[in-house]
Amino acid sequence: QVNSKQEGSPCKEKHVVLLSPVGKIEISGCETGLHEIKLPKMSVLPSGAESSAACEVCEGPEELPEPLQQCTAWLQAYFCQPAATGSLPVPAFHHPLLQRDSFTRQVLWTLLNDVKFGEAVSYKQLADLAGNSRAARAVGSAMRSNPIPIIIPCHRVIRSSGDTGNYGGGQLLKEWLLCHEKLQKEKLAR
Questions:
Q1: First to last CA, the chain
Q2: Catalytic residue of the set 11, 58, 154, 179
Q3: For the chain (length 190 residues), average pLDDT per consecutive 10?
Q4: 30 annotated active-site
């Protein structure tokens, strides 16, 4: 149960499972916004044929709150028609970490707004963008606590050396997402 400050009453949390090219993605949220996106842990990267697999809701209530509808539409576009994500609304977020004012929140919002599809940024560059050039380690900590991965694209944050670095969904998933974006961006550029 997540408590909402506005009403003082717990949200009516709903869950939906999206079957994506990288496995089952679990999404939770309420009428107010998204609570969390849980990524599958991958042990094998999906290959060509699988990566073009459809992206569809496989479990969830008939009536989804609007933020969950927006989230599933956004993720479906991300995997199947990435060019469309720019024209889709980003769902509202309703997670305590994204409600209170903090450096973590600042970093996550900066990442969401400034690091575009197919781009990558180092921890230090993101610290600079978020207003504290000496906070690269704090940026790493913010990435680890990101409750809305993919939409808030923490997979786009890499080490200054070019090494991909760690990822909540695992190394393979991070590499797959970066590769997916790079390939899609190249397709769009043609």
A1: 47
A2: 154
A3: 51 91 92 94 63 69 89 93 89 91 93 94 96 93 95 95 90 93 86
A4: no
